[in-house]
């Protein structure tokens, strides 16, 4: 099977269901950003400090692929059976955050990304997740979007923040705190 089709050479692509849309459309931006997020989560997963969390991070990547496939489908024309999110997917993130928070000092200051390259990767993933969430919310203003998609992305960005803090602790790295200039 060839990867290249040449059908997108003029700036159009097909949604699941066959509808042709501009590659600059908000829907394409949404699932492209979710794909970018998935790549960053893979980078976070591959950090040695996350060896014990590899399965969890892989599951998150699976859910992001689910979100991407949902966003890539024309809600009015697609007849393909696609996987979907479940409320338990959101609950899993919340439970994981609760467990991680038990191991963390109380948050008293704003945290700046940095301190260790692995921690910074988690912060980049968090920022891309927030961007994906904003784009999906904008898409939902004009088109049908599965209700749990923005909820999952919102919770995932929180998860990635808490994970970045835990990674810093486990790496023995001080968190970089914001010291406002007055």
Shape: elongated
Proportion of strand residues? 5-15%
Report on the biggest sheet: 2 strands, antiparallel
Reading the helices and strands in chain order gives: EEHHHEHHE
Instruction: State mean pLDDT (0 to 100 scale).
Output: 93
* Uncertain parts: none
Alpha plus pi helix count:
5
Summarize the structure.
With 182 residues, this protein is mainly alpha-helical.
Task: Kindly describe this structure.
By secondary structure, this protein is mainly α. It has helices at residues 26-45, 54-71, 87-101, 117-142, 148-170; strands at 12-14, 20-22, 111-112, 176-177. The strands form 2 sheets. A two-stranded antiparallel sheet has the order 1-2. Strands 3-4 form a two-stranded antiparallel ribbon. α3 (87-101) runs parallel beside α5 and α4 (117-142) packs antiparallel against α5.
């Amino acid at each position: 099977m060839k990867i290249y089709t040449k059908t997108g050479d003029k700036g159009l692509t097909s949604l699941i269901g066959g509808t042709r849309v501009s590659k600059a459309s908000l829907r394409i931006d949404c699932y492209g950003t979710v794909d970018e997020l998935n790549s960053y989560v893979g980078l976070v997963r591959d950090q040695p400090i996350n060896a014990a969390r590899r399965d969890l991070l892989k599951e998150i990547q699976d859910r992001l692929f689910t979100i991407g496939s949902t966003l890539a489908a024309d809600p009015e024309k697609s007849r393909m059976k696609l996987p979907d999110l479940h409320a338990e997917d959101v609950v899993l993130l919340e439970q994981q955050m609760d467990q991680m928070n038990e191991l963390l000092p109380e948050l008293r200051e704003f945290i700046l990304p940095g301190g260790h390259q692995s921690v910074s990767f988690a912060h980049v993933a968090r920022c891309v997740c927030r961007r994906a969430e904003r784009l999906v919310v904008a898409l939902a203003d004009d088109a049908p979007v599965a209700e749990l998609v923005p909820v999952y992305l919102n919770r995932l960005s929180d998860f990635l923040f808490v994970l970045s803090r835990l990674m810093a602790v486990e790496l023995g790295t001080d968190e970089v705190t914001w010291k406002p200039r007055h």
